Amino acid sequence: xxxxxxxxxxxxxxxxxxxxxxxxxxxxxxxxxxxxxxxxxxxxxxxxxxxxxxxxxxxxxxxxxxxxxxxxxxxxxxxxxxxxxxxxxxxxxxxxxxxxxxxxxxxxxxxxxxxxxxxxxxxxxxxxxxxxxxxxxxxxxxxxxxxxxxxxxxxxxxxxxxxxxxxxxxxxxxxxxxxxxxxxxxxxxxxxxxxxxxxxxxxxxxxxxxxxxxxxxxxxxxxxxxxxxxxxxxxxxxxxxxxxxxxxxxxxxxxxxxxxxxxxxxxxxxxxxxxxxxxxxxxxxxxxxxxxxxxxxxxxxxxxxxxxxxxxx
Amino acid sequence: xxxxxxxxxxxxxxxxxxxxxxxxxxxxxxxxxxxxxxxxxxxxxxxxxxxxxxxxxxxxxxxxxxxxxxxxxxxxxxxxxxxxxxxxxxxxxxxxxxxxxxxxxxxxxxxxxxxxxxxxxxxxxxxxxxxxxxxxxxxxxxxxxxxxxxxxxxxxxxxxxxxxxxxxxxxxxxxxxxxxxxxxxxxxxxxxxxxxxxxxxxxxxxxxxxxxxxxxxxxxxxxxxxxxxxxxxxxxxxxxxxxxxxxxxxxxxxxxxxxxxxxxxxxxxxxxxxxxxxxxxxxxxxxxxxxxxxxxxxxxxxxxxxxxxxxxx
DNA sequence: TATCCTTACGGAATTCGTAAGCATG
DNA sequence: CATGCTTACGAATTCCGTAAGGATA
Lengths: 313, 313
Known about the structure:
The structure is a homodimer. Helix content of chain A is 42%, strand content 22%. The first copy, chain A, is of the alpha/beta class. Chain A has 3 domains: 3-83, Arc Repressor Mutant, subunit A, CATH 1.10.10; 92-164 and 269-312, Periplasmic binding protein-like II (D-Maltodextrin-Binding Protein, domain 2, 3-Layer(aba) Sandwich), CATH 3.40.190.10; 168-266, Periplasmic binding protein-like II (D-Maltodextrin-Binding Protein, domain 2, 3-Layer(aba) Sandwich), CATH 3.40.190.10. In chain A, the strands form 3 sheets. Chain A has a 5-stranded mixed sheet, sandwiched between helices. Chain A has a 5-stranded mixed sheet with strand order 9-8-10-7-11, covered by helices on one side. In chain A, strands 1-2 form a two-stranded antiparallel ribbon. The longest helix of chain A is centred in the N-terminal third of the chain and has 28 residues, at 61-88. The two termini of chain A are 32 Å apart. The interface between A and B is medium-sized, with 34 and 34 residues. The first copy, chain A, binds a DNA duplex through α3.
């Protein structure tokens, strides 16, 4: 058993059991891939893949069990390398943060400016993605830190930390009748076409929930991934916008008005997530501390080690 | 990075940094060991060992951090092999149970008889050891299951399950004055020389605690590792015995009498322990089920997976 | 027929072990 | 001077990639 074999097993599953692709992905020959698989199966005395003739179709039961261990081992191998870099070049490296548009645009700029100043030699990769992509990148080890409001569900593989709380607000064009309706009600809003976030983005779930609880079926005219698009179409008069209040800028958004709506929609919590057992460089902890003072390295480490206890460092 | 290198790192620590011994232990040459260490350090760009001249003295800080990951990876490698055997030869294999004399002698015979009948092709190794040895064997992966009353402290690496409850009792020679003292009191017992278990064995802690709580200092004349020795000396008239009640056999122990003492000493709980993340063969779960009906495979698996949650199978 | 996997085989690279050299206590 | 680590170098082994062959859709 060697690491190349393990990498091949993992890659074979990822590439849908096409060994030719696996060979390309791992920069080796297809024949070698084939042989490695056979060797490993022989060594273990178990067939790992379901075959039909010469094609591979999927994992056998033992293969499925094995894959879990294989992935952990390869992840640990990565951790070892990261750990070594940590010591050899402690302020040089890379940090990948995956997040949504809303956070990237409105919450993170301050944090990132600060971080770049403190760690000029760390290459910060800010990757913008949807809920599924965020989770996949975290679990796949491609991203170190995730920041999102939705989608970061409680999973045993992830450790989540509340970052900040915020509310949705209404955005309307100057002079819109809703500006006169105080107090604002869900019923009043439901009379107009609504422009808001896509399902699964930036607290959209909470919005739907609020209307559903009030037995209202709002007319969602249009959905967008980000507040900038929402504002654009509200300004064009296509409807009223429901979006994160921090995305409104009184100076720049001259033609629009913000209406507080914290009494109508449940509070949203934007969380920071890391994968348990994923080795984080020192500066990754600094990044999290920059986001929220209370999320110290100790707090994050103890909550994110695989055993869920406090004996780490 | 390859497995041989990792094995060498681990073994180097275990063998107190004597590379010659490491070579012998891993059935390879000492020069190869030396080179592997150097290669790995070079690849990682970090010194893993503290050196004085040409001698290795200990781990550096990065070395310490690394060792944790290395051990998990090697453990996973072992798990993979065990897992494969599980499928290739599902009722053939080996099961190592480490336990104390008391359990081996009085609690387990029935379980083991039953187990051997169900799994004739599994080689059952029953290893008898003291508290420290039991823990070391579990953590080192040499034993699959531990059964003990003391010493199996709550550790994050271990999952513990209550097996059965029992009490200490008094054992005296026929015609001993304590047989007339009803109700029996700690004070009365403390008047006689006492023969009981070694510190740390078979609930000895509870016995000491009971006397201490009553502000008594008993005269512990002699200590033994097992009840058979205790009974022998009680029979010789050297003192009164305090031992596990299930170790008394009215037929065989003719010259002795048992006096119930459950009102004097706290209850003891004998536990079954497994190491989290240590892969157990199917028959290992059967063994535990034979001990206690309620400890089904599902119960044990969900409590002993490293994340401590219920999503395992 | 185009794609995909297996096997065979020669060359490349890695690993291993002996032996000699040097440091330590 | 006995023990222990490093380095050097040839031998053994393993790994890799090309190429040919057979199976599948």
